[in-house]
Amino acid sequence: MSNRVVAITGGNSGIGLAISECFLRNGYNVAIFAQSFERMQNVQKKFPANTLIFSGDVSSTTDLQQFYQQCNERWGGIDIVIANAGVAIPENIYNVSEESFDKSININFKGVFFTVQTSLSFLNEQASIILISSIQAQRGAGIWSVYGATKAAVRSLARSFAQALGDKGIRVNAISPGVTETPILNKFGFEKENLTTILQQVTANTPLGRIGQPKEIAEAALFLASESASFITGADLQVDGGLAQI
Ligand SMILES: NC(=O)c1ccc[n+]([C@@H]2O[C@H](COP(=O)([O-])OP(=O)(O)OC[C@H]3O[C@@H](n4cnc5c(N)ncnc54)[C@H](OP(=O)(O)O)[C@@H]3O)[C@@H](O)[C@H]2O)c1
């Protein structure tokens, strides 16, 4: 469907980049909000007529409001909001600092809440909102206590927002990716051999026998944003090769 407008946070890397490019290839206009301007420019160079880029911090409501203002001035309303920006900081209970706790909460939970709240006055009718959670929302792991809790909060927001916005025809759904090959894996700070061992364990425990690719999450987002998903709201679409389903 062409001419519809997507606003996505974190649309310059990994899953968000794949989502941005997937919607652009399918004829949507895409507004990207992230911190690295250079990586957003790389997308804009490929699709100059249909891309808007804005550098900001998702934990700042001022930045988010300015972003939506620019989208509105350019395209006159937004059809799809995708709250994707996130960080994953692996730390066990003994090592979590107040600073890293606040960082995770501010980006992954507060950021998602206000990505949606600040968009509301700019949404067109029948808008679709997609929140990127994680299968870690429903699993336990010593190093992911804070991250998992933020992602459980995101899953919860999809339920409450769906209830709150349903009377306006606005659908709100979550996507929970399994382990997906993106730059986030190299931000964990694991030794290369340890990361390889962890990914081998994940692969062995996944029914489809591999980790996911960002474009596979993007296809799920494209479906949830489309008319094909017109009666789906409050749901969590788990795109994980079966890892958390067995
Ligand atoms: N990859 C996985 O295995 C996996 C699994 C489950 C869920 N997820 C979730 O999927 C989402 C995308 O992750 P990814 O794997 O694609 O990681 P990624 O490649 O590291 O991308 C993270 C994105 O978030 C943006 N971001 C981070 N902090 C921000 C801030 N303060 N303000 C604005 N943007 C910010 C980054 O932009 P800048 O670099 O410009 O700051 C980047 O675009 C995250 O919510 C993550 O938790 C990933």
Residues in β-strands, percent: 15-25%
In angstroms, what separates the terminal alpha carbons?
35 Å
Mind summarizing the main beta sheet?
A: 7 strands, parallel
Class computed from helices, strands and strand pairing: alpha/beta
Write down the overall mean pLDDT.
97
Strand order within the widest sheet? 3-2-1-4-5-6-7
Radius of gyration: 17 Å
Tell me the name of the CATH homologous superfamily. NAD(P)-binding Rossmann-like Domain
Number of helical regions = 7
User: What are the low-pLDDT stretches, counting only 5+ consecutive residues below 50?
Assistant: none
**CATH architecture title:** 3-Layer(aba) Sandwich
Categorize the overall geometry: globular
CATH class: Alpha Beta
